[in-house]
Amino acid sequence: CVILDVQAACQDATVTQELLKEGFHRDLLVKVELGVVGEDAGGCAVAARTRLPPGIYVDPYELASLQQHNLTKAVLIPDVIDVEAPEYLATDLLVLLYMEPDPRCSRCFRAALPVHGRYHRPAEESEEALVVLKSPEVLVCCCDNRLSAECWKPAEVEAPCSGKNVSPCQWYSVTHKPAYKELILQVPVGLRQHSSLVCVVTLLATVLCSSLILAALCKYGHFS
């Protein structure tokens, strides 16, 4: 993708992100408005590159299902994720989220990504752990129109301009001003003083369930 002419003044893009739903399973909604004067962005591909901290992750199997139905397009780096790992054993996750044009605005794009909170270590006092999501980087690739690249810088991203292309293209990083510099996700955590109670209840439940299974096996099982 090559951008040839400089016809529009450069302005910062505006980025907003919002967490929908409650609890461990949320939707991350990202909105971008390109700050380009005098032209629309109809021929551009827009993506948000965001780094998720260890306290939050994307389920690659869920994402594959959504992509199969053309509901969400994203690239995960790395693409192999341990969805069972707790926060203190996990690593950061880089996500390139492809955005769809907003029909109500010629320069606006939006996309939603399902994200999940990881289990944290029990806390001493607070019943919530805070996971901080930084504002994403805005990437643009314009192949069919003549938007200005004067204030854009090439980004080192090896990914196609859209989910349909298979070969990487040249992405450009757009200067932007986030509505909020960071987004806070509150994840429920257990309290250390409840550890003994949880262990006792878990042990009793395990013994009870095992006894019921053994009793049913002895009553209804057929042994040769």
Explain what this protein looks like in three dimensions:
This protein is an alpha+beta fold and 224 residues long. 16% of the residues lie in helices and 36% in strands. It is built from 2 helices and 14 strands, in the order E-E-E-E-H-E-E-E-E-E-E-E-E-E-E-H. The strands form 3 sheets. Strands 1, 2, 4, 7, 8 and 13 form a 6-stranded mixed beta sheet that branches. Strands 5-6-3-10-12-11 form a 6-stranded antiparallel beta sheet, with helices on one face. Strand 7 (100-101) and strand 8 form a beta hairpin. The radius of gyration is 23 Å and the shape is elongated.
Rg (CA only): 23 Å
First-to-last CA distance: 72 Å
Helix/strand-derived class?
alpha+beta
Number of helices: 2
Q: State the share of residues found in helices, binned by percent.
A: 10-25%
User: How does the major sheet shape up?
Assistant: 6 strands, mixed
Low-confidence stretches: 1-8
The general outline is elongated
Total beta strand runs? 14
Give the SSE string.
EEEEHEEEEEEEEEEH
Strand content: 35-45%
Give the rounded overall mean pLDDT.
80
Main location: endoplasmic reticulum
Family: Belongs to the PIGX family.
Subcellular location: Endoplasmic reticulum membrane
Organism: Eudyptes chrysocome (Western rockhopper penguin)
